[in-house]
Amino acid sequence: LNRRLAGMGTTIFAEMSALAVRTGSINLGQGFPDTDGPAEVAEAAARAIREGHGNQYPPGPGIPELRQAVADHQRRFYGLEYDPETEVLVTAGATEAIAAALLALLEPGDEVIALEPYYDSYAACIAMAGAVRVPVTLHPPDFALDPDQLRRAVTPRTRLLLINSPHNPTGAVLSREELTAIAELACERDLLVVTDEVYEHLVYDGHEHVPLASLPGMRERTVSISSAGKTFSFTGWKIGWVTSTPELVTAVRTAKQFLTYVSGGPFQYAVAEALRLPESYFTGLRDDLRQRRDLLAAGLAEAGFTVYAPKGTYFITTDIRSLGEEDGMAFCRSLPERCGVVAIPNVVFYDDEKAGRPLVRFAFCKRPEVLTSAVDRLRQLG
Ligand code: PMP
Ligand code: GLN
């Protein structure tokens, strides 16, 4: 393993999901739903395979139907206009979009500012690009962005801001004010922005997902990334996409074509249909997940965790110090044995170990009865 990837080991998600299988624990670690997405979307994929759509290499930028559907979705939900010919790129999940964007846009030694805690692939992809990660930490209880801290992190070497909202693992949803501060700074210092918005539809309690690209001056400097995994509960399909200017999309595509070239032909047809589902699908998903969030949040609080209720995503971050514990990593490694539940130690998403040490993340994209029995088990901890 080269120096750039030294110490990256196995992702925490793979480690913890394997632990869940090995110990027969309830897996509230890795974020994937335990029920599949809409049957008609699954059927669209099966039909595409049967009818021979996408069984051979699809076009490099993605099938035209999906690029059009992505563009229409951006207009329908946010009033953003993208040309499906030149401004949309289909990728192998958001994961490849992130990798391709960073590999395409960064020079070795460039600094990338990322919100900390950061999703694990950010650190790895910044490292693979030979660039340098500069974290700006979000702090409990609300994990708000401190615009002064962000401003102070910019140096002459800063090339790019890597933003994620709704934010994994904290569940923070950046407000219009926070996003405006990011936008003003990006324009003032002429920075590129890569924004990971895979949880765009998982926002609760009247909070609003505002795409960074919709702010003044941002469309031309922003690479927006999303994916079908979270919105349609098909995380295994790995269909993601990028929307940006022709120049930036071409740059990302240049890297992408040498990573996977193309992927998921038949699934692209199905996701094109999914993006056109009626409003009721999106509100239904949100309402359903909000109820599950409330169920798990209440249960975790009863079990003695300090709960930071998320505004978005399907994750709840907790602090275990109220249980008399300090070390989230040790806690998560022992939890399956102690009570048969798996969770994720947030410390793996931090450079600042002290900030992340007592924090533990639970996923609530699981059936209510599964959440209830997880909570019953966690109550025995006390
Ligand atoms: N970004 C974030 C913030 C995520 O939580 C995930 C989760 N899986 C991804 C990207 C990757 O998305 P995909 O599965 O579409 O590659
Ligand atoms: N995004 C998912 C999570 O945060 C994990 C995806 C993965 O395993 N790479 O749990």
Q: Could you describe the 3D structure shown?
A:
The chain is α/β, with parallel strands linked by helices. It folds into two domains: about 5-30 and about 280-380, Alpha-Beta Complex (Aspartate Aminotransferase, domain 1); about 40-275, Type I PLP-dependent aspartate aminotransferase-like (Major domain) (Aspartate Aminotransferase, domain 2). Helix content is about 45%, strand content about 15%. It has 14 helices and 13 strands. It has helices spanning about 10-25, 40-50, 65-80, 95-105, 120-130, 145-155, 175-190, 230, 245-260, 265-275, 280-300, 330-340, 355, 370-380, and strands at about 25, 90, 110-115, 130-135, 160-165, 190-195, 220-225, 240-245, 305-310, 315-320, 340, 345, 360-365. The strands form three sheets. The protein has a seven-stranded mixed beta sheet with strand order 2-8-7-6-5-3-4, sandwiched between helices. The chain is globular and about 55 Å long. It starts with 11 loop residues before the first helix and ends with a helix. The mean pLDDT is about 95. The chain binds 4'-deoxy-4'-aminopyridoxal-5'-phosphate and glutamine. Glutamine binds next to loops.
